[in-house]
Amino acid sequence: MKQCLAGLTRAELREWAAANGEAAFRGSQIADWMYRRFQPDPDEMNNLPAGTRRKLTEAFHAPCVQMLQSDCAADGTEKLLVELTDGEAVEMVLIPGGDDEEKQRLTFCLSTQVGCPVGCLFCASGRNGLIRNLKAGEMVGQFLLGCRRAGRRPDNLVFMGIGEGLFNFEELSKALQILSGQEEFAMSPRRITVSTSGFVPGMQKFAALEKEFTLAISLHAADDETRSKIIPDKLRYPIAEIMDAADLYLEKAGRMVTFEYTLLEGINDRQEDAAKLAKLAIAHHAKVNLIPYNSTGGEFRRPAKEVIRHFRDILHNAGAHVTIRQERGAKSSAACGQLRLRSKAMPALTGKG
Ligand code: SF4
After folding, report:
1. CATH number for the domain that contains residue 19
2. Residues 56, 70: one domain?
3. The Cα angle at residue 146 between residues 143 and 151, in degrees rounded to 5
4. Which of 89, 169, 285, 350 has its CA 20 to 30 A from that of 70?
5. Distance (Å, rounded) from C-alpha 111 to C-alpha 88?
6. In this structure, are 25 and 102 located in the same domain?
7. Are 149 and 39 in a shared domain?
8. What is the pLDDT tens value at each position of the chain, 353 positions in all?
9. 318 closest CA partner among 288, 278, 289
10. Residue 102 in contact with residue 86, Cβ under 8 Å?
11. How far does residue 345's CA lie from ligand 1's centre (Å)?
């Protein structure tokens, strides 16, 4: 089966060149096209001989992702529907700006799986379960597509798109190696965030990397009973075990975790929820990011503004580090998974990444 060219490190590209009768520097030339010019398509690598380009095309999927559709919001947030070589699709998001002083910042949000095995009840991405894991090259391929689209590298990268990334640990860690490798994209690990629903075996492996990647835990509830109303049993771990894994990450990576907490009216937005969440955050040295729910038309609702503010204040007054996520992409299909679910009715391919 063909590999994705974007899933190779610089050393692996050199090895490929040597094994295929090419001069060693050809591997470095290919690497420079990808890591410096964000170009994974051999047909565009115009300083390579035609024979080398042909060999690459025969050996690899290159590029291995293509843009199917984009949906741009008034604030500049752009959601892309991305097609993979087997016809499946995932989403990625380009998010400009931030706070006023951060106007020039750019963040990419990438997917790690087609569908999701966790199936959080408020999330469109998990509605049909897991279809397949993405390869490392398909994650790096999204990064390359975003860089070409934006004309530059992002300042921050978050794996918060479709999928439970730590359930696809081997491929995700290879992608992280390429994105942060000094010989490849050289992004600071601190600027790369991996989000998990609290998949404990994956969190333990992530901690064991002993790298300064940022970890965000989608907690959504401060007790197991409330959490069971949001996340189905099959991949939901007890909060006590999640906290142990968070402590391990703090010890091994030396970084604070973030608790992501989607506020759902009448489910997890009570004062007692805020008090319990504050206790957990303080005990485990975690920051809390409150996310007012973005409706997908299901049973869940966003709490009123004053409820959200009061929830935040309880945490703040208890001494927890808390923020409310700024809403981005409000006029696009901003709730994760909506674009992919709608895509069956979409027109055919419109662009190439
Ligand atoms: S919120 Fe994340 S973990 Fe939960 S179903 Fe959606 S993609 Fe999966």
Report:
1. 1.10.150.530
2. no
3. 125
4. 169
5. 12
6. no
7. no
8. 789 999 999 999 999 999 999 998 999 999 999 999 999 999 999 999 999 999 999 999 989 999 999 998 888 899 999 999 999 999 999 999 865 555 589 999 999 999 999 999 999 888 889 999 999 999 999 999 999 999 999 999 999 999 999 999 999 999 999 999 999 999 999 999 999 999 999 999 999 999 999 999 999 999 999 999 999 999 999 999 999 999 999 999 999 999 999 999 999 999 999 999 999 999 999 999 999 998 767 789 999 999 999 999 999 999 999 999 987 766 555 555 565 655 543 333 222 22
9. 278
10. no
11. 23
Could you tell which of 197, 242, 339 is best to mutate to test the pocket of ligand 1, judged by most ligand atoms within 8 Å of the CB? 197
pTM: 0.91
Q: Annotated catalytic residue: which of 22, 78, 91, 164?
A: 91
The parent domain of residue 220 ranges over 64-345
Examine the domain organization and report whether 40 and 137 are in the same domain: no
Q: Cα(155)–Cα(109) distance, rounded to whole angstroms?
A: 11
In the residue annotation, 91 being an active-site residue is answered as yes
Distance 80 CA to ligand 1 centre (A): 18
Q: How far is the CA of 155 from the centre of ligand 1 (A)?
A: 24
Q: Are strands 89-96 and 287-292 parallel, antiparallel or unpaired?
A: unpaired
Identify the residues whose C-beta falls under 6 Å from ligand 1: 116, 118-120, 123, 125-126, 162-164, 197
Same domain, 26 and 73: no
Domain count, the chain: 2
Q: From 91, 113, 164, give the residue whose CB has the most ligand 1 atoms within 8 Å, as the site to mutate.
A: 164
* Distance in angstroms (rounded) separating the CA atoms of residues 19 and 7: 17
Which residue is it, tokens 């400009």? 96
Asked whether residue 350 is domain-assigned, the answer is no
